[in-house]
Amino acid sequence: MELKGLLAIEIRPNRCQTPAHLNHLQFHVNLGTLAVTWNSQGLLTRIDWYDNSRVDTTTCQWFALSKGQIPAVLTDLITALKRYSLEGEPLPNVPWDSIDTTGWTPFQHDVYRAISEIPHGETRTYAWVARKVGRGTATRAVGQALRKNPLPILVPCHRVVAANALGGFMGIVDPSQPELKLKQSLIEVESSYRNPMFSFLQPPGGSAWGVAS
Predict the structure, then answer these.
(1) How far apart are CA 155 and CA 116, in angstroms?
(2) Residue 69 lies in a domain
(3) I need a surface site. Which of 73, 123, 127, 140 has the fewest CB within 10 A?
């Protein structure tokens, strides 16, 4: 579906789970349903994930509601997320200049920048992140910052695990819950891409985000 230039589209089946605010786009990927929001300046503010068992995917394929043109970075992001979810293809570098960081603490900035440097297909511990940001004993604070991450998957908090366990994800710590199953799936799909059964068929890594002309 071509999204560039898409304006003020509203598709609101009663059974869709959607927030009641503007500048929101919801779409399906292989691992669930993603909802992206942005502000009036075109900066990304949130990415939310829904387990498809909680969303009626037969009546809610797309939902978009915008006051103006959907940001170019979002059209690129949707394409990248679909490829990532399906094949584990690396996402391009985090488009920091296209993200609304209002309300982030300096510590959150440091933590999110640090985890964005974790290579695709690899994981690091909370203690590693704490050391990376110069706060070696602040593993609990790292966990709290990751819990508040407004852009999961794009800012890859799923790559941070406990020393001997999976750790939490999206504020959830119960491994039986869908969020933790998603975290495991994200780690596995990235690992499969990094170490394919037939390595000579592996495509090249991520590229830069496109810029609208």
Answers:
(1) 6
(2) no
(3) 140
Asked if residue 23 belongs to a domain, the reply is no
Residue 84 near residue 91 (C-beta atoms within 8 A): yes
Specify the length of the chain in residues: 213
Residue 48 lies in a domain: no
70 and 3 Cβ atoms separated by less than 8 Å: yes
- Amino acid code (one letter) for 132: K
pLDDT tens readout for residues 179-213: 999 999 999 999 989 876 555 444 444 444 433 32
pTM equals 0.80
For the chain, how many structural domains are there in total?
1
What is the C-alpha end-to-end distance of the chain, expressed in Å?
Answer: 20
Is 56 part of a structural domain of the chain?
no
Residues 6+ apart with CB under 8 A from 123: 159, 160, 161, 187
Which residue is it, tokens 């779409």? 27
Place of tokens 């009036």: 40
212: amino acid identity, one letter: A
Q: What is the pLDDT averaged over residues 18-36?
A: 77
**CATH code of 146's domain:** 1.10.10.10
Residues 6+ apart with CB under 8 A from 135: 107, 141, 142
Half-sphere exposure of 36 (CA within 13 A, CB side): 24
Determine contact, residues 158/187, Cβ cutoff 8 Å: yes
* Residue range 127-152: mean pLDDT, rounded: 97
Catalytic positions are 157
